[in-house]
UniProtKB/TrEMBL annotation, chain A:
GO molecular function: NEDD8 activating enzyme activity
Job description of the protein: Regulatory subunit of the dimeric UBA3-NAE1 E1 enzyme. E1 activates NEDD8 by first adenylating its C-terminal glycine residue with ATP, thereafter linking this residue to the side chain of the catalytic cysteine, yielding a NEDD8-UBA3 thioester and free AMP. E1 finally transfers NEDD8 to the catalytic cysteine of UBE2M.
Record lineage: Eukaryota, Metazoa, Chordata, Craniata, Vertebrata
Protein name per UniProt: NEDD8-activating enzyme E1 regulatory subunit
Pfam families according to UniProt: ThiF
GO BP of this protein: protein neddylation
Automatic annotation (TrEMBL), chain B:
Pfam families xref list: E2_bind, ThiF
Active site residues of this protein: C273
Sequence ranges assigned to domain E2 binding in this UniProt record: 410-498
Listed SUPFAM superfamilies: Activating enzymes of the ubiquitin-like proteins
Keywords recorded for this protein, A-Z: ATP-binding, Ligase, Nucleotide-binding, Ubl conjugation pathway
One BP annotation, GO: protein neddylation
Top-level enzyme category: ligase
CDD domains reported for this sequence: Uba3_RUB (cd01488)
Protein name per its UniProtKB record: NEDD8-activating enzyme E1 catalytic subunit
MF terms (GO), sorted A to Z: ATP binding; NEDD8 activating enzyme activity
Organism per entry: Scleropages formosus
């Protein structure tokens, strides 16, 4: 790797913009991953492109088809010279060329053949992406991957409709990076060190400069003490009380010799933040669910790291944490002089580090109890204890089974006959059509008229089989016959676990997520 | 420079007096106007087709566009253009001519050949557009390579527009991307007028506003009624990390960039007192070095500005920032953070750009082909948590400074100073000008009251800032002409004296 000024490697420079999103550890995970794409259609290669560019470790394309003229017309990663060649090989060449850090492979075979002869072939991948798979192949593959614990992402594009389905038993997220997370300030239940720090301030006997540059967190804490004295140690709860509390703070603003309030921005900040600062500290329900998860109650030598950590956090919560998660340790920026701010920040930081090391000790003893040694860093996970997420997606088998189909979700969405759900039903019906006629509706102009009727039959048989009492407008049936088997690419891949079906309608530029 | 500041507002004074009529016109349903616009595009298609047929008959057409095509090449597009359907635009007529229009006639301008631009060029070329022009003033940097996939490490240093055009033209036979290694401000109305649709993949709000203003200046009003054939649709895309948006702007008809300025998040600028004497965050320390220490110490010589792309400069700022930080016991200054703050780096990843560019390209296709009703008119996308999109109709602002044709008023006391007006122009939320230049006709002569962008003129006119409007000889009802980077046209304001 070439070095440049300040020791930044070429790779670090190249990936700079994305490292600012997911960090070095995120990049490492990406570089250790091996993804499998089945069918190098325009959609498939587009998805791979968005994985190859940021530096995925390796990819393998599985495709038994030969490249046609139509393929070259809509796929950036196929050229005229590849017409007649195997599509997996042709696409691998032009995708590999995007990033020499990535290792590209291809298998000139249909997925059905592989499932017949060597289903364990798929066990080696971090993720399998299936594009434009026919239903039977899709369900077979889904079964194999589900049992092997390999996440499966199904993608279909049909005309101006895009469909994605994620099937994974359990996907754990350590850093969910929520957009608008509330701060973890503990003002309602200050830990000892915070209490002491707050005590060290005497707002009534400060000079003006110090008074105006005291962090708002301290201001709120001090006035909360006053409030407690007059309100039986109860937090301000409703709007009226919070308003009264804000007024209490407002009265604390220094006045000049004429009795006019001075300009104290830190007090204004305190008043503004009363609403959120006094939220009772509690464990988010998503995290509660994780801590109480049944499946991982007993730690064994095979338990994944995430769940060992979750158990350790739970033990912390039940003991040292006194019902609370480890302190996060960060505070927002606020008007204050440097010293006061840094000192306050350090109080939170040090407490967070303390809590993290307690959790680490729990991790160590848990692992020891099953004869393992701790090799990973738990500090990061502790900082984000409130942001742990688990996503569990239903299997495709369940989605398609008559007994377990999510009738409620489908019927309630179809109360609006133009809901994206109708596009889901159409895609399922189109699969049925293919099963019966070995082709997609409306491939040739002369077929369109007749196929509308045939597709309608498929729609009705689908609805009947699942006992779905919904109405699918004829317009949609007609529209799906227009597309033939073609797609104009419009969906790209995201590594965010949506749960579990995403439909994009490019006609109206709307989308929806369903749990099916 | 003179040409870009030519003021068309005076010529339109007659039309402005009929502005109640244009407001009525503006209130008519947008859909009706979309229809009119698409009809005019259809008329244009037919007109050009007739022209070309006539040309072909006159010239020996031994090899035409179709020699570059192979069997099945445009199947994916033809299904949309040659078959009727229930969701098409009400005026859509399936025909084989539409494909021809796309391939041979429709002229698209792509602004920006970066993250969005590369994706846009690929999408448009694969859809069949062949007359594509692309403007980009930048050269390729290593940090572009993680998403701007038309570039390789051997291309670092070369103009983005040139390399992008080359790649597309080679990969998509028949496509003719024409590159311009220039700024958008280097072109005038006659250039922009030639395009059917303009798509932006810019990284600057100022540039967007300029482009927006340019398309407004192309609009032709006859007796207060907008001529739809003078409308050039603007598709605008923007991304930041995992978030993005795509919008369709029909100048003069739908909400424009300036109508929705408040939608753009404010730029983070730390207060000077924090930076100068009360830093708390590592960012404050870096800003201190950038804004105060560098100009004072001039570490690389007199008149050498801080260059975020120069690793030696960044190294210097990094070291000094660390020193400042340790003075205040602040931790967290890293090389990466230093560079991020100095260059105002926005994180970026391939997938967000791909999604937004796809949405934009879909709209270009819809408008060019009239195959579907276009997006009306704003799409927001976010994939931080799951996948989220939200589509809504952004509304026009009644007194929008860019597109409403409503004359803008300035209300000041005669004792107010020119500085007060300058501050208003830059700080007002709907104007947000950057470095406005103010001229006025006083005693029959055109006078520059203040201009920042040319050092000698700035020095000469600086004393005017402290003078009152009365002292400057301005009168009640007077018109002031204001030029700024945010608009290609000079804006006229009417000065009203308050008591």
């Amino acid at each position: 790797m070439a070095q440049s000024a300040a020791g930044k490697s070429n790779k670090e420079q190249k990936y700079d913009r994305q490292l600012r999103l997911w960090g070095d550890h995120g990049q490492e995970a990406l570089e250790n991953a091996h993804v499998c794409l089945i069918n190098a259609t325009a959609t498939g290669t587009e998805i791979l492109k968005n994985l190859v560019l940021p530096g995925i470790g390796a990819f393998t394309i599985v495709d038994g088809h030969k490249v046609t003229g139509e393929d070259v017309g809509n796929n950036f990663f196929l050229s005229i010279s590849s017409i007649g060649k195997n599509r997996a090989q042709a696409a691998t060449e032009l995708l590999q060329e995007l990033n020499s850090d990535v290792s590209g492979n291809f298998v000139e075979e249909s997925p059905d053949k592989l499932l017949d002869n060597d289903p364990e072939f798929f066990h080696r991948f971090s993720l399998v992406i299936g594009v434009q798979l026919i239903e039977s192949t899709c369900l077979r593959l889904a079964g194999v991957l589900w049992n092997a614990g390999v996440p499966f992402l199904v993608c279909k594009t049909y005309g101006l409709v895009g469909y994605m389905r994620l099937a994974v038993k359990e996907h754990t997220v350590v850093e969910s990076h929520p957009d608008n997370a509330l701060e973890d300030l503990r003002l309602d239940q200050p830990f000892a060190e915070l209490k002491n720090h707050i005590q060290s301030y005497d707002l009534d006997n400060m000079d003006k400069k110090d008074h105006s540059h005291t962090p708002w967190i301290i201001v709120v804490a001090k006035y909360l003490e006053k409030w407690y004295n007059e309100h039986n140690y109860q937090l301000p709860k409703n709007y009226k009380e919070k308003e009264a509390f804000r007024q209490l703070i407002r009265e604390g603003i220094l006045k000049n010799e004429n009795g006019v309030a001075e300009d104290e921005e830190n007090f204004e900040e305190a008043i503004k933040n009363v609403n959120t600062a006094l939220n009772p500290t509690k464990i988010p329900s998503t995290v509660q669910d994780i801590l109480n998860a049944e499946g991982w109650k007993n730690i064994t030598a095979q338990t994944p790291a995430f769940w060992v950590m979750a158990r350790a956090v739970k033990e912390f919560v039940e003991n040292e944490g006194e019902g609370k998660l480890p302190v996060r340790g960060t505070i927002p920026d606020m008007i204050a002089d440097s010293e006061k701010f840094i000192n306050l920040q350090n109080v939170y930081r040090e407490k967070a580090m303390q809590d993290a090391s307690v959790v680490s000790k729990h991790v160590e003893s848990l692992l020891q109890s099953v004869g393992k040694v701790c090799v990973y860093k738990s500090k990061k996970k502790c900082k984000n204890a409130a942001f742990l997420r688990v996503v569990r997606c239903r299997s495709l088998a369940d989605e398609c089974s008559v007994e377990l189909v999510n009738k409620d979700e489908i019927t309630s969405c179809m109360d609006n006959p133009d809901s994206e759900m109708v596009l889901y039903l159409m895609l399922r019906s189109v699969d049925r059509f293919f099963q019966q006629h070995s082709r997609y509706p409306g491939v040739y102009n002369y077929q369109v008229e007749e196929d509308i009727g045939k597709l309608k039959l498929c729609v009705n048989s689908l609805l009947q089989e699942y006992g779905l009492n919904v109405n699918v407008k004829d317009d949609y049936i007609h529209e799906f016959c227009r597309y033939g088997a073609n797609a104009i690419k419009m969906i790209t891949h995201q590594f965010v676990p949506f749960n579990n079906t995403f439909i994009y309608n490019a006609m109206s530029q709307t989308s929806a997520t369903f749990q099916l | 420079m003179e040409r870009s500041r030519k003021c068309r507002w005076t010529a339109k004074a007659n039309i402005r007096r009929n502005n109640c009529l244009s407001l009525v016109v503006a209130r008519l349903e947008v859909r009706a106007y979309v229809t009119l616009l698409l009809l005019s595009l259809c008329r244009e298609k037919k007109r050009r087709r007739v022209e070309e047929l006539a040309e072909k008959m006159a010239v020996d057409s031994g090899h035409g566009g179709n020699a570059r095509d192979w069997d099945g090449r445009w199947n994916h597009v033809q299904k949309f253009l040659e078959r009727p359907g229930p969701f098409t635009h009400p005026d859509f007529e399936p025909s084989t001519e539409s494909l021809h229009f796309l391939l041979e006639t429709c002229k698209i301008l792509v602004i920006g050949a970066g993250g969005l631009g590369c994706e846009l060029l690929k999408n448009l070329a694969l859809t069949g557009f062949r007359q594509i022009h692309v403007i980009d003033m930048d050269t390729i940097d290593v940090s572009n390579l993680n998403r701007q996939f038309l570039f390789r490490s051997k291309d670092v240093g070369r103009p983005k527009a040139d390399v992008a055009a080359d790649f597309i033209n080679r990969r998509i036979p028949g496509c003719n991307v024409v590159p311009y290694f220039k700024k958008i401000q280097d072109f005038d109305e006659s250039f922009y007028r030639q395009f059917h649709i303009i798509v932006c993949g810019l990284d600057s709000i100022i540039a967007r506003r300029w482009m927006n203003g340019m398309l407004m200046s192309l609009l032709i009003y006859e007796d207060g009624v907008l001529d739809p054939s003078s409308i050039i649709p603007l598709i605008d895309g923007g991304t930041e990390g995992f978030k993005g948006n795509a919008r369709v702007i029909l100048p003069g008809m739908t909400a424009c960039i300036d109508c929705t300025l408040e939608l753009y998040p404010p730029q983070i600028n730390f207060p000077m007192c924090t930076i100068a004497s009360m830093p708390r965050l590592p960012e404050h320390c870096i800003e201190y070095v950038r804004v105060l220490q560098w100009p004072k110490e001039k570490p690389f010589g007199e008149d050498v500005p801080l260059d975020g792309d120069n690793p030696e400069h960044i190294k210097w700022v990094f070291q000094k920032s660390q020193e400042r930080a340790s003075e205040f016991n602040i931790t967290g200054v890293t090389y990466r953070l230093t560079q991020g703050v100095v260059k105002r780096i926005i994180p970026a990843v391939a997938s967000t750009n791909a999604v937004i560019a796809a949405a934009c390209a879909t709209e270009v296709f819809k408008i060019a082909s009239s195959a579907y009703v276009p997006l009306n008119n704003y799409l927001v996308f976010n994939d931080v948590d799951g996948l989220y999109t939200y589509t809504f109709e952004a509304e026009r602002k009644e007194n929008c400074t860019a597109c409403s044709q409503v004359p803008q008023d300035l209300k000041f006391a005669p004792s107010a100073t020119l500085q007060d007006i300058l501050e208003y122009l830059t700080e007002n939320a709907s104007l947000q000008m950057k470095s406005p230049a103010i001229t006025a006709t006083i005693d029959g002569k055109n006078r520059t009251l203040y201009l920042q962008t040319v050092a000698s003129i700035e020095e000469r006119t600086r004393p005017n800032l402290c003078k009152t409007l009365k002292e400057l000889g301005l009168t009640d009802g007077q018109e002031l002409a204001v030029a700024d980077v945010t608009t290609p046209q000079t804006m006229l304001f009417k000065l009203h004296f308050t008591s």
